[in-house]
Amino acid sequence: MLKLKQIEKPVAIEEGDTFKVVFSKYGALALEKQENFSEFIGETIGDLDIEKGIIYFGDMEFPVQILGFYSQDLNQWSWAWDNEDIFGKDLIKSACEIKEIGDKFGFPEFNSPVISLSFETCHTITMTATSLLKMDAYYAVSEEGLDIFVAIKSDLIKSDDSLIKFRNTFYNFQKNFKVYPKIAFESYTKLKGYGFKPHDDFAVAKIGESRIIVGFTERGNVTRILMYDEEDE
What we know:
With about 230 residues, the chain is an alpha+beta fold. It has seven helices and eleven strands. Strands 1, 2, 3, 4, 5, 6 and 7 form a seven-stranded antiparallel β-sheet that branches. It has a four-stranded antiparallel β-sheet with strand order 8-9-10-11, with helices on one face.
């Protein structure tokens, strides 16, 4: 009897997903990208030229898309798609894409022009947006009492595809953010292009001949993370 190969379900936003579910799906990859970017620029402070749509880090420059800005005095986030008069059409294209997602799936985090939230939550929103837009990083620039968040895409920012990096990023993500760890592990694995195999109380990420094995409680919390590296054999 011919056995049909099971088709793996791709990572995508589905009807009924909450924002927490979406962040769980896309946030770990965004965290990895941010760490890669932070290592790349080091201690250099970014200098944003809004008229040119460029951010400078010393001698390095990157074209940007404006996602939004945060007022710490008001504890208020404003999306760039609602501020075309400030930034112009060309710099808010990515923000408009996020609004379209918000409209389609009913996420107020994405389609409300102004939101009262903490500075930490701004990072949650922009991390999610960075992954959904397939950008390589985001950066917050302080300008006259506002923090302007920009999205960056550049081949200069190299990815770290090591086994240890994958393990550490997932561990830090599920530990430091309010997410669903089981969803996060499956999605992060698939977004990286690795093989994924679920079991009743654990799941396996297959990275070549190496493996990351994560155990879960009935509630989906992490009990253990094991690493099998073929290079150690």
